[in-house]
Design brief:
This protein is an alpha+beta fold. It has 13 helices and 17 strands. This is Beta-lactamase family protein.
């Protein structure tokens, strides 16, 4: 892409090229098979670069239309869906989840004992829709491996997802029967909250989650490549996993994207492309509208992208220190996004109010309303904590701002 260095974008194009120089080393030494980065300012794409291979073993390069498993970058899409229903007054943020999923009516909280026979007490607060959006529900993930409630999920065959053949409705009922890690609203913990939110969207709308996305979000935004399975398997990047020898192919996990899943995971099920997800982030940057299609009001987007943790706390104060797709210091949480509250605490020269999220295979995006900027990283290496590539990308992008 040619960049006009004299363009009044507030970006030094020679400094943006540092992104390519830095990330090329990840491909050269085998840490990543390939990557695609796009940076926009004021709606104009000011840097778009890709390098490496979508399938290293087959010698197939990363291309502009490569498809990626975006995993938890599905969560903002599901959160937008829920807030569209909120704007229609079809649900309230304070509604108990049991209003839509009755099995969540009598929740229990873990207080002791082994995973096979946990000791519990009744929850002191109903789980509400807002708790799902903010990950303050008390739900967890089986793959955390730091608490007994995580082990409870694994004993039920749920580490990275429910057992084969279980649909979303049944998965939600199974989670409702498991003990919560804490009372809803009392702490932050990364877990299956957004999957439950996806089921709420289904119940309220009367449509399956894939149908709702297609009719209300991906279809209207022209996101033709985004679905719960790869729309074109030939364009799907191979999935790689960290090993002592670098990135190794992980087909056993990655092949799930080749067919429609039994459970439509609003927390991690979508496959998408750079162009598609860029359109989604542009809709957010523009306050809920793109190319004449408005999904949300600008007020609602600002509301979603504000910190909803009690007392303005960050995740370091209010969260449980374990794996998540964001740093904890200086970062709060909104309705579906992490939100930067204190750039000094993060150690990144970003902006107060910058928001975004990432996925298990190291994909990442953020929107900076102060700088009118969006950035997206697409790649396919799990786990996302393998390398500090997200932090480095932020440093490189903000280091290129030069008014």
């Amino acid at each position: 892409m040619t960049i006009d260095a004299s363009s009044p974008t507030g970006i030094a194009s020679d400094r943006l090229r540092r992104i390519d120089d830095h990330l090329s080393a990840y491909v050269d030494d085998g840490r990543l098979a390939g990557w695609h980065v796009r940076v926009s300012k004021g709606g104009a794409v000011i840097h778009d670069a890709m390098l490496g291979q979508r399938d290293r073993e087959a010698g197939l390069p990363i291309t502009a239309d490569t498809l990626y498993r975006i995993y938890s970058m599905t969560k903002p899409v599901t959160s937008v869906a829920a807030m569209m229903l909120y704007e229609r007054a079809e649900l309230s943020l304070n509604d108990p989840v049991s209003t839509f999923i009755p099995s969540f009516a009598d929740l229990q909280v873990y207080v002791g004992g082994p995973a096979a026979k946990p000791v519990t007490r009744p929850a002191t607060e109903p789980m509400r829709v807002k708790h799902l959006l903010t990950h303050t529900s008390g739900l967890t993930y089986g793959f955390h491996r730091v608490h007994v409630t995580d082990e409870v999920m694994r004993l039920a065959g749920q580490e990275f997802g429910p057992p084969a053949g279980m649909d979303l409705a049944a998965a939600c009922d199974s989670w409702a029967a498991m003990p919560l890690r804490f009372d809803p609203g009392s702490c932050w913990n990364y877990g299956v909250s957004t999957d439950v939110l996806g089921r709420v969207v289904e119940v309220v709308s009367g449509r399956s989650l894939d149908d709702f996305f297609a009719a209300e979000i991906t279809g209207p935004l022209g996101m033709r490549d985004t679905a719960f399975q790869a729309v074109d398997p030939d364009r799907l990047a191979a999935l790689y996993a960290l090993s002592p020898d670098g990135a190794v192919r992980f087909d056993a996990f990655g092949k799930a994207a080749l067919q429609k899943p039994h459970m439509l995971s609003g927390g991690g099920g979508l496959v998408s492309s750079m162009d598609d997800y860029w359109r989604f982030t542009e809709m957010l940057r523009r306050g809920g509208e793109l190319d004449g299609v408005r999904l949300l009001s600008d007020r609602t987007v600002r509301f979603m992208a504000s910190n909803h943790l009690p007392g303005g706390a960050d995740l370091e104060e209010f969260g449980i220190p374990l794996y998540a797709e964001t740093p904890f210091s200086g970062v709060g949480f909104g309705l579906g996004f992490s939100v930067t509250t204190d750039p000094q605490a993060t150690g990144i020269a970003s902006s107060v109010g910058e928001y975004g999220w990432g996925g298990l295979a190291s994909t990442y995006f953020w929107v900076d309303p102060v700088e009118d900027l969006t950035a997206i990283l697409m790649t396919q290496l799990m786990p996302s904590s393998a390398y500090p590539v997200r932090q480095e990308l932020k440093q490189l992008v903000y280091g290129a701002l030069a008014d």
